[in-house]
Amino acid sequence: MLQPKTRWDIFCTVVDNYGDIGVTWRLARQLVAEHALEVRLWVDDLRAFERLCPEIDIDVAQQWQQGVEVRHWPSDWVHTEAADVVIAAFACQLPSDYMDVMAEREKPPLWMNLDYLSAEDWVIGCHGLPSVKYKSVQKFFFFPGFQPGTGGLLRERGLLDQRRQFQHDRAAQRQFLQGLGIDRAADAQLISLFAYENTGLASWLDVLAADAMPTHLLVPEGRILGDVARWLGVETLSVGALHVRQALTVQVLPFVRQDQYDHLLWCCDFNAVRGEDSFVRAQWAGRPMLWHIYQQDEDIHLDKLDAFLALYTKGLSPAAAEATNGLWRAWNAGLPIAEQWLAARNHWPELHKNAEAWCLEQGLQADLAAALVQFYLNWI
Questions:
Q1: Based on the domain organization, do 166 and 206 belong to the same domain?
Q2: How far apart are CA 292 and CA 219, in angstroms?
Q3: Is 259 known to be catalytic?
Q4: Mean pLDDT, range 299-308, rounded to an integer
Q5: Of 279, 317, 313, 232, nearest in space to 116 by CA
């Protein structure tokens, strides 16, 4: 059992707008709420953080939010005492002055690099291994993942029970959607779209508009809005915009905070997501999904995509697995996806069943926060 006053520092540099801060903010809150730890979250971009936590004052360098001490990571570092556990999120470089303070401690802290999420096989072999050393302080690799032998996924206590209750409560769903200004038609499928720019989008919207089944497409503020606007033939799209094209209704939503986004995913029949944090949350929704992975140099992100697909589609029939693989790969290549979407639709009941089974399978593993705490307990 951890001592209540165990202090943790989490460092985050905002690279992809919201993915990095989304993961670290969620982790920091869970460590405080479920493990009674003292957590400081160091962030170099409070303006991006404000989108996820509107209560943040971007002009204040030190503040407390939901039990977490939030500190602005300044360009000119000020002396501060090093924590018992130091997490460098996504291989960010710690301030050199802080590293010196870590080395000056009588008992060096546990220093971990919380890496990007990947389903690749090599992750299991590298998870928990020592990395570089700075003076007396040893750094360790810590990899989130989908298989035993990794650090697992972020999942708050009771999350899956909350999700199931919400998805069985039509009145609660209706109330939530109405709070966002969404009036869902009784016979319309609900799809959320949160993605990077994608030239394949127009083909998907074409087939949704021409479909016999009506679709209500919910698009939170984000980078895909420009592509949606071009397809609609309008100059810009702002929050609250509502456009109807044949069987397709497109509605632009505000950028919502994390708990609201969870509920949005839980309401939808299908979720298109991007990055890492939204990707994990869509899996906890237990609904069919489409992932737009963050593009990396030399297309190494496609190896990560294929590694996840190999795990995610393992329980599907060959035809359903082929349809899912085709849809995800075409979407991530920016290719037209009309044909692949229709192929996936042919296996809709099976895809729903697989999404729920995958969610429950992942829920059997220790969550990321608990795994980090256990790693520290083993270390001491």
A1: yes
A2: 14
A3: no
A4: 90
A5: 279
Extract the tokens encoding 43.
Answer: 């962030």
Q: Count of alpha carbons within 13 Å of 41, Cβ hemisphere only?
A: 30
Q: Say if residue 209 is in the same domain as residue 283.
A: yes
The answer to whether 347 touches 323, Cβ cutoff 8 Å, is: yes
- How many domains are contained in the chain? 2
Are 102 and 136 contacting, i.e. CB atoms less than 8 angstroms apart?
no
- Domain hosting 127: range is 7-153+365-379
d(CA 125, CA 71): 34
Tokens for 273, please give them: 């997501």
Residue-averaged pLDDT of the chain: 94
Q: Tokens for 270?
A: 């299908």
Global confidence as pTM: 0.95
- Give the whole-angstrom CA distance, residue 366 versus residue 299: 31
79 and 91 share a domain?
yes
Pairing label, strands 215-220, 189-193: parallel
Whether 197 and 102 map to the same domain: the answer is no
The CATH number of residue 46's host domain is: 3.40.50
pLDDT beyond 90 at 84 = yes
List the catalytic residue out of 84, 115, 262, 276. 276
Neighbours of 189 (CB within 10 A): 19
The residue annotated as part of the active site, out of 20, 44, 262, 367, is: 20
Chain-centre distance of CA 379, in angstroms? 28
Which tokens in the block code for residue 25?
């903010």
- Residue 2 is assigned to a structural domain of this protein: no
Q: What token pair was written down for 61?
A: 């360098």
Helices (H), the chain: 19-35, 46-52, 96-104, 122-126, 159-167, 170-179, 201-210, 225-232, 258-267, 277-284, 301-312, 318-332, 338-345, 348-363, 368-379
Count the residues in the chain: 380
The CATH number that applies at residue 207 is 3.40.50.2000
pLDDT tens digit sequence for 98-109: 999 999 999 999
Please indicate, yes or no, whether residues 240 and 369 belong to a single structural domain of this protein.
no
Note if 20 is an active site residue: yes
